[in-house]
Give the backbone structure.
Amino acid sequence: MRTIDHDGKQIGVVPIQQALSLAMQRGLDLVEVAPQAKPPVCRIMDFGKYKYEQTKREKEARKHQHATKLKEVKLRLNIDPHDYQIKLDHARDFLYEGMRVKVTLQLRGRENAHPELGFDLMNKVLQDIQEVARCEMPPRKAGRSFNMMLAPAKGLARKQASADDAPSDDDSDSESAS
């Protein structure tokens, strides 16, 4: 088997027993790195250190991956119509960016006596945002709050991108007036 030293220097093709004895003399491990090669390739290294560095590299690679983000929009039962519209616009923006949105409705005090009003408000949110979102988890009551999970609708990002590329009506009016 072809053997590589811990420094990266090639020792050459040696029998397994000789490669094992070389590794033991140095207090290291003999690790097979390319079993499909002819002859198989082994390396003399500290296997524990190798595994540690490998997990470190994997952790670093995972850190740079783009994970789907979750944003939360919190509502109250007696929300002002303007505030409701602003919250809805924020949720719509998050969905256009490809993020999932958790809608939370918190009940306090006497509001807990009328949970049906909470369900009505959550269903209204769902109705008002259905063109850009699909419901992953319908409204559920959990203690004193209602939770609902929304995800971007299928093909939403493509619609948004094509809308950005299209010229606006204002541009075409100014060209015809010239």
About this structure: The chain has two domains: 2-63, 70-157. Helices lie at 16-26, 47-63, 81-96, 115-128, 156-165, 169-177.
